[in-house]
Amino acid sequence: MPRVRLKVGPMPDMVAIADKFPNTVIRFLSNYPSENGVTSVLEIQTDHPEEFVQETENWFSSSTTLLHSDDDTVVMMLEGQPPNGYFVSEDIEYHPTTPVVARDGHLFIEFVMPESKMAAMWESLDERNVNYEILSITEGYNVLDSLTARQREILTVAIKRGYYDNPRGCSLTDLAEELEVNKSVISGVLHRAEGEIIKDAIGDPREQEGDNQWKNRS
Fold it and tell me: Is the pTM of this model over 0.70?
């Protein structure tokens, strides 16, 4: 599937951080719906962690909780109303990869998504008045890379033997005999591999449950 990289912004709060703390990089590790909007976990790499925590405590339009701090890293949890662009993922029913990175006042966001979703994403970004720049669109993901060598081996044999033909050219028992393993092993390996391929093709509806909960609250 295509890999789409976007540069979004400038974002006012991120610009303020970049001006006060140059070279700071913020990574949004996770985002999920909560009672007061959306909760985000951020990892911040900065040369001045203590000063960063003190200065930014009232910058964000949300409640903040410090989770960790050391010589060059701060981990914070934020809860509040997200920017309008956050809802693009709901509109297209597809989530960006994590982490989303913020630096120099902008967000750098990456989607691995079917080409059929792209038109909807451009439309949603425009309708929500999101300032964005397309950095690249590449063929960066192949579902076969997520399969184990054993899964690829058994799938290859199954295809060669006509297991997926209609009518079938062989049975699970035939495959098990050829590969000299138990029939239940063949069934389990094929089931998991098929699941990876199908979810890559049409998406996993369970990934949208969190968004649906958010919509129901709104």
Answer: no
